Amino acid sequence: MTDSGSAPSAAGAAVGRRIGIGLMYGLWRPRVLGAWRVPSAGPVILAVNHSHGIDGPMLMGTAPRPVHFLIKKEAFAGPLDPFLRGIGQVKVDRSTADRKAITDALGVLGNGGVLGIFPEGTRGEGDFASLRSGLAYFAVRSGAPVVPVAVLGSTDGRSRLTPAVPPLRARVDVVFGDAFAAQEGAGDGRQAGTGRRTRRALDEATVRIQERLTAHLDRARRLTGR
């Protein structure tokens, strides 16, 4: 069953970014590296490693542009439901092919926005070791360039009271990598809708993306000493 709610709001995402800036810089000490690598205009996909519960809000507060994240439907509970919708986030049912979420995500990119994806699908080691094909689908279908993002340090010295959250005022490094096209030979990936979308093409794109994300994570770890 799909959700009949309205499309994600760009204005809402801008509000979410302001909230994220206040919360993330107020509670922790983000160090942002390479934000200039995010294209200043046009559709972009931020592919983020996911090892901690604050990774999404951290990106919302540190990315140079407002971000619409694909967020599991379980998070849209109680008062968080209208709040997340209000700040332009995309609700997705991971148990099925959620057509509403797919339409909303492609709509974000079609309108020249920034889509945030955790390509590992769920929180884990945050090492990009296991990628789902969703990221490749959105990148190939939209033609949007992919920018790898490594969030590092958010699992260091976890709080005893709240293991999913780093200690207050802990440093968290957010490292943006170079934009790349999901399909080899596709230039900068901005010719929307021109990519091949066969199963083989998506599999090849997934492998290419995983290689690029893993290489970026290795570089980010060397750069930050994390």
What do you see in this structure?
With 226 residues, this protein is α/β, with parallel strands linked by helices. The chain has one domain (10-224): Glycerol-3-phosphate (1)-acyltransferase (3-Layer(aba) Sandwich), CATH 3.40.1130. 35% of the residues lie in helices and 15% in strands. The protein has helices at residues 10-27, 55-62, 80-86, 99-110, 134-142, 199-224; strands spanning 29-33, 44-48, 68-72, 90-92, 114-117, 146-152, 171-176. A 7-stranded mixed sheet has the order 1-7-6-2-5-3-4, sandwiched between helices. The radius of gyration is 16 Å and the shape is globular. 41% of the residues are buried. Pfam families: Acyltransferase (PF01553). It comes from Streptomyces kronopolitis. InterPro entries: Plipid/glycerol_acylTrfase. This is 1-acyl-sn-glycerol-3-phosphate acyltransferase.
In N-to-C order, the SSE pattern is HEEHEHEHEHEEH
Structural class: alpha/beta
- The average pLDDT value, as a whole number, equals 86
- Shape designation: globular
Tally the beta strands. 7
> How big is the Rg?
16 Å
Counted up, domains total: 1
Task: State the CATH superfamily name.
Answer: Glycerol-3-phosphate (1)-acyltransferase
End-to-end span in angstroms? 42 Å
Could you tell me the CATH topology label.
Glycerol-3-phosphate (1)-acyltransferase
SS strand fraction: 15-25%
Number of helices: 6
Largest sheet: 7 strands, mixed
**CATH C-level name:** Alpha Beta
Poorly predicted runs are 188-194
The CATH architecture is: 3-Layer(aba) Sandwich
**Fraction of helical residues:** 25-40%
GO molecular function, one term: acyltransferase activity
Keywords: Acyltransferase, Transferase
Pfam families: Acyltransferase
InterPro entries: Plipid/glycerol_acylTrfase (IPR002123)
